[in-house]
Write a structure and sequence with these properties.
It is a single chain. The protein is mainly alpha-helical. The protein has one domain. The protein is built from 21 helices and 2 strands.
Length: 486
């Protein structure tokens, strides 16, 4: 794990250092980036069998007397999000190779792209609070530059600044929460934190304040209603491969952190705030869904859809039941595949037609059969249609809600799937069905480097929907592990 992260972070830095040389060779930087990501992924995948067998992969190193030990851990809880980052990281990198062909400063783009992936994986695997925060910030900085320099030119400066301010404000709350946690527990080591907090017996009010600081900080990254306004702009205006990563995995690092800290370290505080947080999640589902329904911009529709889908995960983790934790973890994978696919589809459509306004599109299924087929699978999964993985994750979430005794809230959450189906069916109709406008007669299928990743994601959605045991054999024990703390 250490070598894998070193390859991404050092490799990204070296691409930037030698960008002058790489700029003269059109595709060298992209090829190097793909190799770096694939090698890092293979190294990480060698640890997955241990977790499949119920063990954990752990690497730790001495840091300092005050900060404790630093290291990386792949366990049952971090497994789903790490799997999501690795899967979408590989596919988004391959997708980007064709997408950024005509972009400026390609070596700089690839340097930030690879570093962004390294930051996300560091967050997933960190074993120390200070280390976690460092990777949290590493994740922010390259994504800011990717939006600033390769986003929509007319709005890039405004949107990248808004994105940075919002997410950094959330990070400030997190570092305050970590400082108070250390003051109470006397350790930064996440492996010892649950035991240290129990032994310290601090006042309940102090723990509730710490949990609230962390929960709001993580909620900003998840873009839950009220702290979500950065997401529609950033996801819609970022370069499409980065939109895939922002929506498919970056916001879900916030969900992973919410589960790790709320479900294990501050489980009593999570239970104390449970109903309020669950209501917050349901409100997010409906708000994001209704906003998606009225969008005419393809990427903004998908961005608001991400807000809505984060509401499902936030609700799932807030209800503090085994089925809820299992549903939320499964929905992380379902959302990674579905939303990564759909943002990739948007990029193909924009790349080949030059349009992103839904009123300028239509009938593209006859011109883009592979992209259309993948998009239908991704959209129906997000809408919760069986037998796709999105149906399985939502079923688990709603079962968890009923187990928690939140009958009314769970019924409301289930009804929000009608809104999800509405905006997804509208998207499919506006882009791929109906008559083909004359100005799109010459449209062709997207490049193979862009279409193949979408096809793979579609296959994963179908396979995990029909045979969910592939992921549930790890996710159910993970959910039971977290629930044992509640």
């Amino acid at each position: 794990m250490t070598i894998a992260l070193g390859i991404l972070l050092i490799g990204g830095a070296l691409i930037y250092v030698f960008k002058g040389v790489l700029e003269r060779e059109t595709d060298y930087a992209g090829i190097i980036a793909i190799v770096l990501v694939l090698v890092a992924a293979v190294l990480l995948l060698t640890n997955f069998p241990d977790v499949n067998n119920g063990n954990e992969a752990l690497e730790t190193y001495a840091w300092s007397d005050t900060l404790g030990r630093i290291g990386f851990r792949l366990d049952l809880v971090s497994y789903p999000i790490t799997f999501a980052v690795v899967l979408l990281g590989i596919l988004a990198t391959i997708y980007a190779f064709g997408y950024v062909t005509h972009e400026h400063s390609k070596p700089s783009y690839w340097a930030n792209h690879v570093t962004f992936l390294g930051g996300m994986l560091g967050v997933c695997l960190a074993t120390n609070l200070v280390e976690f925060y460092i990777f949290w910030e590493i994740m922010l900085v390259p994504s800011y530059f990717l939006i600033l320099y390769w986003g929509t030119p007319e709005q890039a400066k405004r949107i990248s600044l808004k994105y940075f301010l919002f997410t950094h404000a959330g990070a400030v709350l997190i570092i305050l929460g970590f400082a108070l946690t250390y003051d109470v527990a006397g350790t930064f080591d996440m492996r010892l934190l649950a035991q240290a907090l129990t032994a310290a017996t601090p006042p309940a009010r102090t723990l509730r304040i710490i949990f609230l600081l962390l929960a709001i900080g993580f909620a900003v990254k998840m873009a839950v209603f009220g702290v979500h306004t950065w997401l529609p702009d950033a996801h819609a205006e970022a370069p499409t491969p980065i939109s895939m990563l922002l929506s498919g995995v970056m916001i879900e690092t916030g969900a992973y952190a919410f589960l790790r800290f709320g479900g294990i370290f501050f489980n009593k505080e999570l239970a104390w705030y449970s109903q309020s947080l669950a209501i917050w999640g349901v409100v997010t589902m409906f708000y994001g869904g209704f906003m998606a329904l009225v969008q005419t911009d393809l990427k903004r529709l998908l961005a608001y859809s991400s807000v809505s889908q984060m509401g499902y995960i936030f609700f799932a983790f807030s209800i503090s039941t085994t089925y809820g934790f299992a549903g939320g973890l499964t929905h992380i994978i379902a959302h990674t595949c579905g939303k990564g696919l759909l943002f990739g589809m948007a990029g193909v459509v924009m790349h080949e037609t030059g349009f992103r306004d839904l009123n300028q599109l239509g009938g593209l299924s006859s011109k883009m059969p592979f992209t259309a087929t993948a998009a239908f699978i991704g959209a129906l999964s997000i809408a919760g249609a069986p037998p796709l993985v999105g149906f399985m994750s939502e079923w688990l979430i709603f079962k968890g809600g009923f187990d928690a005794g939140y009958t009314t809230l769970t019924i409301a959450a289930a009804l929000s799937t009608i809104v999800s189906a509405g905006y997804m069916l509208r998207l499919l109709w506006k882009v791929f069905l109906g008559p083909l406008p004359e100005h799109l007669e010459e449209t062709e299928e997207g490049q193979k480097s862009m279409v193949i990743p979408l096809t793979i994601l579609a296959m994963v959605i179908v396979i995990l929907g029909i045979w969910p045991s592939f992921v549930l054999r790890v996710i159910v024990p993970a959910a039971e592990f977290v629930a044992s703390y509640v």
